[in-house]
Design a protein that fits this description.
mainly beta; 4-stranded antiparallel beta sheet
Length: about 200
């Protein structure tokens, strides 16, 4: 599944011929209100979440009586600015996504209502990472890495990369290793590692 600048989200499935040859077949298309540069995320119930222009979309796959699939729009949340950040879905179904307006949103995955928003000092196209304790980690255009409580939206800490340089950005999406180490890159040409303590 992927989005496209033609304002559509596409779903594909793999089918196999009688002799075992695999082929990728279009399984559904859903129109959005703008170009899709965000990678889709899939929730526990199969709902697909994706950013497009200035909105976050939730899309469901429904099947007809003859088994044909269709992508159907479930809800839309307007952020007011471009969404290049790929959503992250928490264990409870909360959808987290950043926007160019400098905000990160926590949305109810079931209906799209806002649970909280956190305002950074710069745009956010970094895709959030979720720690084992539910903490949300993401970077921003001000060069800072943020740690925010995933339930309340309260900032736990922040780290300024770049050594105070005025033009430092974090476009990189954080990654968390099995041992709890968090990695993130910055435009200052450095890769940072943080040990997350419970």
């Amino acid at each position: 599944m992927w989005g496209h600048p033609d304002h559509k989200l596409y779903a594909f499935k793999t089918v196999y011929s009688a002799d075992g040859v695999a082929a990728l077949v279009l399984d559904g298309v859903c129109s959005t209100g703008g170009s899709v540069y965000s990678s889709p995320a899939v929730g526990p119930d199969g709902t697909i979440y994706v950013g497009s222009s200035d909105k976050v979309y939730a899309v469901k796959t429904v099947y007809s009586a003859d088994g044909a699939a269709a992508l159907v729009l479930d809800w839309v949340y307007p952020t007011g600015s471009s969404v290049y950040s790929s959503p992250a879905v928490g264990p409870d179904g909360t959808v987290y996504v950043g926007s160019y307006n400098g905000k990160v949103y926590a949305l109810n995955g079931a209906n799209g209502s806002k649970r909280w928003e956190y305002t950074t000092g710069g745009g956010v196209d970094s895709s959030p990472a979720i720690g084992s304790d539910g903490t949300l980690y993401f970077g921003a255009f001000n060069g800072k890495l943020y740690a925010v409580n995933g339930t309340t939206g309260v900032k736990l800490w922040e780290y300024q990369t770049g050594g105070g340089l005025p033009t430092t950005y974090i476009h990189s999406s954080p990654a968390i290793a099995a041992n709890g180490t968090l990695y993130v890159g910055s435009s200052d040409r450095r890769l940072y590692a943080f040990l997350i303590l419970d």
